[in-house]
Amino acid sequence: MTSIYETRVRDLRNVLRDHQLDGFIIPRGDEHLGEYVANSSERLAFISGFTGSAGLAIVLLNRAVVFSDGRYALQLESETDPAVWERLHMIETPPEAWLKEQAAGLRIGYDPRLISADALKKFEAETLYPVIKNPVDEIWADRPAAPTAPALPHDLRFAGEDAGAKRARLAQTLAKEGQDAALLTDPASVAWLFNLRGGDVPFTPVALSFAILHADASATLFIAAAKLSDELRLHLGNAVEIAEPDRMEEVLARFAGKTVRYDPATMPVWFKTNLEDAGAIIAAKSDPVSLPRAIKNTTEQDGARAAHLRDGVAMVRFLAWLAKVAPLGRETEVSAAERLLEYRRRGAFFKGESFPAISGAGEHGAIIHYRVNPQSNRPLNPDEVYLIDSGAQYSDGTTDVTRTVWTGPSAAPQVIKEHVTRVLAGHIAISAAVFPEGVAGSHLDALARMALWQEGLDYDHGTGHGVGSYLSVHEGPAGISRAAKPVPLQEGMILSNEPGYYLPGAYGIRLENLELVKPAHFPGGTKKFLCFETLTLAPFDRALIDASMLSTQALRWLNQYHSRVSEVLSPLLTGPDDDFAREWLKAATAAI
Amino acid sequence: MTSIYETRVRDLRNVLRDHQLDGFIIPRGDEHLGEYVANSSERLAFISGFTGSAGLAIVLLNRAVVFSDGRYALQLESETDPAVWERLHMIETPPEAWLKEQAAGLRIGYDPRLISADALKKFEAETLYPVIKNPVDEIWADRPAAPTAPALPHDLRFAGEDAGAKRARLAQTLAKEGQDAALLTDPASVAWLFNLRGGDVPFTPVALSFAILHADASATLFIAAAKLSDELRLHLGNAVEIAEPDRMEEVLARFAGKTVRYDPATMPVWFKTNLEDAGAIIAAKSDPVSLPRAIKNTTEQDGARAAHLRDGVAMVRFLAWLAKVAPLGRETEVSAAERLLEYRRRGAFFKGESFPAISGAGEHGAIIHYRVNPQSNRPLNPDEVYLIDSGAQYSDGTTDVTRTVWTGPSAAPQVIKEHVTRVLAGHIAISAAVFPEGVAGSHLDALARMALWQEGLDYDHGTGHGVGSYLSVHEGPAGISRAAKPVPLQEGMILSNEPGYYLPGAYGIRLENLELVKPAHFPGGTKKFLCFETLTLAPFDRALIDASMLSTQALRWLNQYHSRVSEVLSPLLTGPDDDFAREWLKAATAAI
Q1: What is the pLDDT of residues A119-143, one digit of tens each?
Q2: Do B456 and A525 touch (CB under 8 A)?
Q3: pTM
């Protein structure tokens, strides 16, 4: 039987032959190069069947290969047809190396809207051919329409700064740096700059769109008219020209002789080529929204605190419920995640999840990017480790929290408690850190790992990422990771703090709170110091903590945190069924 | 009265006019751009009087300005004539910015042998003119002759790897990277590669020289014949061509069409220009010796351990003596430093100090780069803090150790003990760190500071630098500093661990040991982990430690370290006057 993917690849090859191409590169991203893409841009899934968030396919006339990384190795095997696709690990065999070796001298095409200038550079770019009409789209008969979810204003009481003021502030930067305009291709940057939110992709409330900010603080917003309400048009005002995205090329042509800021790391090379063809001068610099967006103003900070109160109530109701039902063994990964979502839905301003919940029992918890589905779903058994990493979008803030619990009813084995307590010690070391201005997350990462390193243990992911304000739950430019470029932490940034430990085939541990960077005041100090205010409010499972392993200071931090969680959330547990949750919270947060 | 500097600047201006120059840049470095320079290259001191290790002068026809940094602000004021020189802070007013503003359109000369390609780039290089014959030398009538200290073989029992094997090993790297040859301009690189040592500059046992390593493992060594003994010629062997340094230009001209590795950060631009003029292709990469030199082989590691035993004996004799005499108030900063040097001289293989000792009582200790001299010398008073940072060159290793002691006889004030204990906590956090391969010193720096940061305190210097093996006490490329490029720590590297705290006008604290990077073994581990072996052996002053502020683990580390110091050094304290030192050591290292 011919699989649909065999047919699709055959059809694609026919199109490639028509174009005189020997092959074509199909990345996973869309023209915004972000984390989530609309169904209409799921070309990699269409052609290969692979649905993971990191992947790339190369179709030659006689071979087809699809790459992903270690996180998705099993998924790649199960989702793709081995009769059609060779499956490769993109770290061990980088696509650019594979292409260089396997396709030397061939005419390989790529879609310049789907690859950044920096990513293209990694290939021997001179051997590749830009193709304007994507050949995959030619064979994709039932391609979904591009999403047209309504774009709405993001209210000033949540945004805290008027869009005009934001444009004026950024325009000053452009003018100071001698740039006539800046290109924006990240819909989250567009959303932040214009104080608008949308619903075109899952989990991140953005409207797929582009923009150009001019040095005089006016702007052009490229967005499908179908998404625009009168309310949004009014909100955008006269200084913002609105254009259909397909007018981009025409507008870029106006920049002859002008200097345009363009980020080669995050923006499709198509824009660079068009600007250069138009005679514009490229100022290769980061997206100008990236840093200002990461620094939350006081309204956004207050919003984050308020959102975390509601999220904390949902978490406590969930954890209390879980403590009751988990030892019975009748719940599953799916039912637990649904229950938590249900509790979150009750909160004011709830808009949806901020990412697909990771609900992993036992060995599933050790799969760092585990995504539960009906096939993988399994019961939460008594006496095992259960990890749940989830978050929500509220109009006033985005949340992201991970707790690891012992399902009971027996006591947890000492070895598991030791692993959890080492992860907790690292989590606390970050949370309690104080540091001068100029220090970056890359300088703090070791604090989160030292308790594990002391035993030769570690975790293969960063310690923390930036989090948006009712925007993307994964946001740059700051993070807590040695791999990242050191970006100094600044007052108002929100970062996750999520060390972990994973024993493959057995269990996974991750403990995650969001932390707000705020000033630390010392009498008579001359240097400016910063510290973290923990936003997330939810108890850590006492059943998994060996208090004797914690330093006096760390134990004091834990008890103070728990006491704060209890004091702040108890008065909010006033629902008809909250008696149990309140009692549970009291016990869960008692001093150790 | 006309000062000699007024005369010299006037004479220099006359020479500049002869050369049709409007000004000339006089950096502090010589053609090796290293830390110490020979008297014959002290052009900055000759023209300005300033003798600090960081400085640069610019002489225009009507103005003369000399720059240094905050460490040398007072020294700059006192050593230079305000009637001749404007004195500026090179961080607040970078020379390149000053020149751009104050000398626009003028014809400014520089000596291309005394500035790196990268440093030159910071200036608007197109406005500067290379001058081959340095105008300062033209007016320097009594310029000392270049040093001609004998260069001698560094014995294989100390070096651990034959020079031919080193050349073969590095030549492989060159060949692999497609380089025909590599230039070496750092005398410490030359010393390491050829297993030779010299005495041309103070404190670092190098012979001023250059070299070219060829991809076939042969080499050309540019060194004055006056420094060469028959023994060294024999040691170098036939694969090493020997040439006078003034033949450099002629030899570089042989590289037409060849690819030559050149480090634009550390090598004079003169070499780059000559290579390019000769038609060579420049491969801009780091000095190929830099990393191999930092990774000590097992012979060098054993040598370091042995050298630290002798250095530890000297330190204990010194500290014991100090404990006896300090409360009497009859010693001075100079007499104490001389006493320590005297004890060191008794050790086998002692060659000299590895840097000028920093011997700072009370407020002098707060001057991070304090250098005692007859003018600044002051008594060690009873009941104050005394800081001594010193080190030695032994044939088998280089040492660098700092201790901070309370002179007594009264108990130290609690506030000082708190500061010292926070510094000690940071020192121990580094010493006890365990970390996977790939981690750099920049990732560990925060560990050393966190106990201080928690109180809004910090120190304005790096936590640690690399240390050579009977070579430079300050050696790249690895260090423990956020400012440095992250260079992963590797087994065999030796780094200093020296957090501090300075209260200007009152006292300075610094606690420094050298640490050897070695593997940390964990049963069943898959990742390679590293940790530190502390080389330095000397007690920390118990009078300044508040044990109640240390974590259980930190206190355990301290007691274990002290017990090791006592066990290892006691049996070596067998001199006629060592009874007191042995008794003192026992008490100084008793468990807290």
Answers
A1: 999 887 667 999 989 999 999 999 9
A2: yes
A3: 0.95
